[in-house]
Task: inverse folding
């Protein structure tokens, strides 16, 4: 398929490494990897690789207990995120970019930290008041439920309770360890 | 050599000429012929990288012509009434682009000129979420437009299309989206797995409301909220591949039967529905569903690689369509020689002969992130 070939050419370096992490933004560029497996890979993940296709320099948390590159879609906290990664937009994994406002309302997911094997409650607060950042698009749908269960849905623009509902990017803030998962 | 060139130029200049092209009028603006043919469609570019400026493109699925567009604000919705020759766009704007005073509108467009007929202000509460056809709906009598609100309190705003004004808000705590039944009824889906059935009076005010018993197991196998209607039934595929029918032949909707889209063997192979808007219904009783193999928890928004076609009366699959490009969203035109339109992973729209299941051609240039296709209703 044409899109497959083009995708492979442009995105191959960023193919997902774990088949459980795939999502809607794969709609924009997904592909077969190899001949047998059919992992549908989100362009969001591919495009968000630090130093990769998105041209974003690699990042580190500096903390071995919080492993991974927060500028990539594979970073463990992003298991239910949907949007542009604030780490690529002037903010960090848990801070909004300068001049934006963090939404106090959000949806909650749980993600497993590969460093300690524990599941953490993650709050996906959006940052608001500037137009779409447009960098490091990432979507993963672990635990995503339909819009009629809003607290478990990542389709909703969570820029609510802010001065402006215009969406800029998304963070992933640890609230604590999950007690019942 | 120079002499030959000179002779050639002379011959060209001296050759008999046709009549001059006539002068043309300036300030000309094209129109779209109405009523729209059944193979026109509106493509919603969600404009993910520029959410405050989305758009709807009107295209001809046969000629591939681009006929015009509507400019919309962020997280827009689209409804239409061929009887009124009008399109209704729900949109959110800020007075200074990304900041300032928020305005939520239902903007009324003429289907022929694609010009604005009216801007109806509604409470600044309309739900802002990634494109969803059920974020607003006309009532079946065509009188009211019902707009789903979330701020995060959940409610609906009712717009009287005759009077061109907002006529009231109805709180709907815990319940989302709008699916029309008949006359002035609609239903919503609720976080406890029930549905909320609402009817309006002749003024658009609440006439009745009632909850069903919970029937959706949201934790184990939720129904997608991206539904399709055939006749007076709504069809809601589940993440795992059941389809739940909601009967909407009376104002108050009721939960009807449920059946599997897949066989036991297909489920073992991991076949599941997937995509952004993964189903479409044809009035003759065919339900088109985007499918993927090797589904997994969280695969429900992956692009569909096949479309399976079901006869909803027999609960039987009648065709499989292997897609040229994987599908974000699908739509089927409502005529006897229908086209299946596929918003594909490349950001263009593939057109298929829906009866034969064969690819015809691709419409390009319909925006950055075209996530939804609206047929002509």
Result:
């Amino acid at each position: 398929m044409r899109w497959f070939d083009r995708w492979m050419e442009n995105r191959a370096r960023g193919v997902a490494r774990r088949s459980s992490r795939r999502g809607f933004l794969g709609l924009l560029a997904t592909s077969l990897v190899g001949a047998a497996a059919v992992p549908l890979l989100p362009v969001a993940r591919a495009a968000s690789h630090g130093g990769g296709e998105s041209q974003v320099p690699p990042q580190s948390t500096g903390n071995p207990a919080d492993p991974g590159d927060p500028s990539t879609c594979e970073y463990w906290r992003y298991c239910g995120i949907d949007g542009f990664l604030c780490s690529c937009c002037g903010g960090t994994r848990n801070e909004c970019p300068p001049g934006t406002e963090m939404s106090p309302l959000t949806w909650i997911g749980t993600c497993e930290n590969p460093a300690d094997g524990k599941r953490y409650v993650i709050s996906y607060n959006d940052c608001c008041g500037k137009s779409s950042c447009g960098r490091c698009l990432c979507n993963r749908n672990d635990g995503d439920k339909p819009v009629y269960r809003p607290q478990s849905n990542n389709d909703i623009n969570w820029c609510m309770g802010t001065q402006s509902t215009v969406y800029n990017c998304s963070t992933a803030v640890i609230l604590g360890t999950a007690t019942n998962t | 050599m120079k002499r030959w060139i000179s002779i050639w130029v002379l011959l060209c200049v001296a050759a008999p000429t046709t009549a001059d092209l006539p002068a043309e009028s300036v300030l000309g603006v094209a129109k779209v012929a109405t009523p729209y043919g059944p193979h026109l469609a509106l493509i919603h570019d969600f404009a993910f990288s520029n959410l405050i400026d989305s758009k709807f493109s009107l295209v001809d699925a046969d000629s591939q012509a681009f006929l015009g567009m509507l400019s919309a604000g962020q997280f827009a919705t689209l409804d239409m009434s061929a009887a009124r020759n009008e399109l209704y766009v729900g949109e959110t704007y800020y007075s200074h682009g990304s900041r300032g005073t928020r305005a939520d509108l239902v903007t009324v467009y003429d289907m022929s000129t694609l010009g604005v007929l009216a801007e109806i202000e509604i409470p600044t509460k309309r739900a802002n979420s990634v494109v969803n056809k059920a974020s607003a709906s006309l009532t079946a009598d065509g009188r009211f437009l019902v707009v789903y609100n979330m701020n995060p309190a959940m409610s609906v705003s009712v717009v009287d299309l005759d009077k061109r004004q907002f006529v009231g808000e109805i709180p709907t705590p815990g319940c989302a989206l709008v699916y029309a039944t008949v006359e002035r009824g609609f239903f919503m889906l609720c976080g406890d797995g029930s549905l909320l059935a609402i009817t309006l009076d002749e003024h658009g005010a609440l006439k009745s409301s009632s909850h069903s018993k919970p029937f959706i197991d949201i934790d184990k196998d939720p129904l997608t909220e991206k539904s399709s209607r055939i006749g007076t039934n709504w069809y809601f595929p589940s993440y795992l591949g059941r389809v739940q029918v909601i009967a909407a032949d009376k104002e108050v909707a009721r939960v009807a039967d449920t059946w599997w889209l897949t066989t036991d063997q297909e489920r073992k192979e991991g076949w599941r529905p997937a995509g952004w808007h993964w189903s479409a219904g044809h009035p003759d009783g065919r339900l088109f569903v985007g499918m993927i193999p090797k589904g997994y928890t969280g695969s429900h928004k992956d692009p569909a690689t096949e479309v399976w076609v079901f006869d909803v009366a027999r609960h039987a699959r009648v065709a499989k369509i292997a897609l040229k490009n994987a599908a974000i969203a699908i739509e089927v035109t409502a005529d006897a020689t229908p086209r299946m339109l596929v918003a594909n992973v490349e950001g263009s729209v593939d057109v298929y002969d829906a009866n034969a299941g064969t690819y015809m051609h691709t419409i390009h240039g319909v925006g950055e992130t075209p996530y939804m296709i609206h047929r002509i209703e």
